[in-house]
Amino acid sequence: MSEKTKRVRRIGVLTSGGDAPGMNAAVRAVVREALTNNVECVGIRRGYNGLIHGDYYLMTGQEVSHILSHGGTVLYTARSEEFMTEEGRKRAVDICRFLGLDGLVAIGGDGTFRGALELSRLGLPVVGIPATIDNDVGCSNYTIGFDTACNTAIDCVDRLRDTMSSHERCSLVEVMGRRAGFLALYVGISVGATAVLLPERDLDFERDVLEPIREARFAGNTHFMLVVAEGVCMDEKFEGVHTVFDLGNKIKEAIGMKPTVTVLGHLQRGGKPTARDRETASRMGYRAVKALVEGRANLIIGTQKGKIEEIPIEDALKMKKSIQMERYDMLRDLQNRVPRH
Ligand code: ATP
Prior knowledge:
This protein has 341 residues and is an alpha/beta fold. It has 12 helices and 11 strands.
């Protein structure tokens, strides 16, 4: 800390947007690292809503004991329409001033960081921590919650496969991911899916759905597992298909086999965070407080090539992360197909 840097005495922490397993581990790390540095930590409930409405409490080291093994967030989370207005944000900053906050740690996704950027423009030092099961934050290779959500979805699909393969059925499983297909891709690779449908790709029903089923059937498979990201049907990537159930009907019409449709939905958000999520969240929370205490702010704590990095929020929000299409190609190569000559 330089001599000119104002001593940080009190910070706030909040979780915002969709909940993600591992958020609690990040909150714990923020609180404990703050207290280690003689900095008080105010927990703000329900994201930016709590900030606007003064829903907060002073956190102790004891009350974050053992929360790192729990999914969800002890601070609750919310989406705040009011915070989208200038008036709402001014009110939020007034509350921060009233509380004497020298900084704020905001844990969430891109939307949360856009909100954090606005707060920084109003003079509040902020640091963001990426936590979303979609893994769709451009500035960070990894977001807290992704690994747990993958493992939860894989566990569900494995169970489904046991029953569906016994009946020699076709399974169509929808996983979360409106604009990003990371979850679908990683789950698809890990369960050896017959086909994976990603929102990032231009899709063709014949090429991307029917052909993989036919190839697998020709190679001797009697059960077919199709993994589809929710954005595919929402964006009507196939004509006349608005839901995964429509997609199931379209497959039935084309090949006479009616897939059993399973929507994993909010199941994917819950559960005990994995080692990767607890460890990453702990490192990010620790680093966020270190940055504030050492006088650095208006950053996102991201991971790049496995290392924790501090990225200025404005730059971070411009960064894009593409889905790894080479993994998609690998998935196709690893499918059971009769070799072409
Ligand atoms: P997830 O990836 O899980 O959806 P997220 O952080 O992207 O998480 P959002 O709902 O997009 O979730 O954003 C959370 C909150 O951040 C919003 O409810 C809103 O209050 C605030 N926010 C989002 N975008 C902006 C913006 N452009 N300006 C100010 N605040 C914003």
